[in-house]
Write a structure and sequence with these properties.
Elements lengths: L1 H9 L1 H9 L5 H26 L2 E2 L5 E2 L3 H30 L8 H11 L1 H5 L9 H26 L4 H31 L1 H9 L1
Helix pairs in contact: 1-2, 2-7, 3-4, 3-5, 4-5, 4-8, 7-8
């Protein structure tokens, strides 16, 4: 798992070609890659929101209790896992227009690896300042977009021209999913205590 993470960050074209010949199942991908990396933003957000609180500017912070942060973390973790699976299905659906489309398993694997930079960017949530988290998220999204464009022809065996169409549409949908994740992050980690209390009343 760590080998692929470093390869995707340092030399993605070579890494995609190497992964192309691996016969990895979706279960193995989740067990050795997605489940572990998805924990990075969750654990970091848990630590950041309970120890420091969300920095909102003007020295205002919103800090969660341990129990509230724990529940928010579980929901956040499940949402991330579902988002990866959803994007894999989006890629599979987009690729169906071509002569020899990749199967669903390969598309889900691809989505799991493409999400790597965005999941790693969650490290900044250890000290959660809103503008810093947004900046890290944008950088992670840009690198994931690059992995998407480079990986589609190398990993999914789609031509460069067809891959550009799939990549562009997938990236647009991915941006919407990321915006929903960011909104969920603010709601769960920033106002989780208030939401939980309002639901219990």
């Amino acid at each position: 798992m760590l080998t692929h993470v470093w390869g995707l960050m340092a030399h993605p074209q070579r890494e995609w070609k190497q992964m192309h010949d691996e016969h990895e199942t979706v279960f193995h991908l989740y067990a050795h890659h997605v489940l572990i990396l998805s924990a990075v933003p969750v654990v970091c957000s848990f630590i950041g929101t309970t120890q420091f609180g969300w920095g909102l500017g003007a020295e205002r912070t919103i800090q969660l209790g341990l129990l509230d942060a724990f529940y928010a973390g579980i929901v956040f973790y499940l949402v991330i896992l579902a988002a990866v699976l959803f994007m894999g299905n989006v890629i599979h659906w987009m690729a169906q227009r071509f002569v020899d489309p990749p199967n669903r398993r390969r598309c889900v694997k691809f989505a799991g690896y493409v999400a790597t930079p965005m999941l790693l960017s969650g490290v900044v949530a250890l000290y959660p300042i809103v503008w810093l988290c947004l900046l890290a998220g944008v950088i992670g999204l840009c690198w994931s977009g690059y992995l998407l464009y480079v990986g589609i022809p190398n990993f999914l065996d789609i031509s460069d021209e067809q891959g550009f169409i799939v990549s562009s549409a997938t990236l647009a949908i991915g941006v919407l999913v990321l915006e929903m994740l960011l909104a969920a992050t603010v709601l769960l980690w920033g106002y989780g205590e208030r939401i939980i209390l309002s639901l219990l009343q």
